[in-house]
Design a protein that fits this description.
It is built from 12 helices and no strands. The chain is mostly helical and 204 residues long. The chain has a domain of 96 residues: Tetratricopeptide repeat domain (Serine Threonine Protein Phosphatase 5, Tetratricopeptide repeat), CATH 1.25.40.
Length: 204
């Protein structure tokens, strides 16, 4: 009976923290999660909640330590790996982020979010051709994934391949209204010397 009561109490505490996490009540997580983890130091879901709460409140170095623990405990969890890579990126450690993204793509070769994020990393360090290749690999798994389409179009524009970028932005807009695509298409038109009025008429 004592064990059952203890389990019920722990579940109640976890449910309350999980609810706070879903409501993005990070201050509650930061206040309450450490006590929970004293009793359950290897509770991966709670470690992940605390890591995210720390990251969302600007304490990214502390978040990184917890995210590493989560990945060590549950290396098969894609979300944990993605959170770790993202935090490395936010801390400016692009080398470590790249290592994680490569591991993710090796284990989950069809994950389009990973292709998109890894391409952004490569593009941020000037590796435009490599970034383009990664975006195209991702689109082979989901040709209508808008984030990848936008990133690829931006990468083409950065290589001054404006006609290709324009065509891709038009493809995106043919699927659905997209403000980012409209704005970026406008930049392409300006680079090509077209009048803004032409841009306005062309995407309606």
């Amino acid at each position: 009976m004592k064990i059952n009561k203890l389990m019920a109490k722990n579940k109640e505490a976890f449910d309350a923290l999980n609810h706070a996490f879903n409501e993005k009540n990070y201050s509650f997580i930061l206040a309450a999660a450490p006590d929970f983890l004293k009793k359950h130091p290897d509770h991966a879901p709670m470690l992940n909640m605390l890591a995210v709460a720390l990251a969302q409140t600007g304490r990214k170095n502390e978040a990184l330590a917890y995210m590493k623990r989560v990945v060590a405990l549950v290396p098969h969890e894609l979300v944990a790996q993605m959170n770790l890579a993202r935090t490395y990126m936010e801390l400016g450690d692009k080398f470590s982020a790249q290592e994680v993204y490569l591991k993710i793509l090796d284990r989950w070769p069809k994950n389009v979010d990973a292709y998109s994020n890894y391409g952004v990393l490569l593009q941020s360090v000037g590796k435009l051709e490599e970034a383009e290749a990664i975006y195209r690999q991702g689109l082979m798994h989901d040709q209508n994934f808008v984030a990848l389409q936008l990133n690829l179009a931006g990468c083409l524009a950065a290589q001054n391949r404006l006609d290709e970028a324009e065509a891709l932005y038009r493809t995106i807009l043919a699927q659905k209204t997209n403000l980012i695509a409209e704005m970026e298409l406008g930049k392409v038109f300006k680079s090509k010397g077209f009048a803004q009025t032409l841009f306005c008429n062309s995407v309606r």
